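TOKENISE THE FOLD
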Amino acid sequence: MREEFSVPSEMTLLEALREHFPKSSGRKLREMLTEGRVTVVGKASHRAKQQVAAGASIEIHPRDKAAASVRRAERSLKTSRLAILHEDETLLVVDKPPNLLSVATDKMEPDTLHSRALG
């Protein structure tokens, strides 16, 4: 079920989510953002620190209805394997391809060294 609310005053998106869902953990709220479940004035947003204007409409979508852009990105995720040079209980050494980001930025790139190592 989709839920919608308006922001009472200008604040960051994470602050607005905390105010609307006071019993939810910060981790849970950030998961909503990374899953593409949060839209601000009709546009998917992943940035916790995004400034949201007073009166702006925020929608929370169920997991199965997450933003189409996130689902498309997940489908197009590259599945190429990493060349593992060394692995033990505490260390993983890989040959990182050029131009592959180590971790995602605020643009939420789906294909990163981190995502490949965990995938």
User: Anything to note?
Assistant: The chain has a mean pLDDT of 83. The helical segments are 13-20, 26-34, 68-75, 113-118. The first helix runs from residue 13 to 20. Residues 2 and 100 are 35 Å apart (CA to CA).
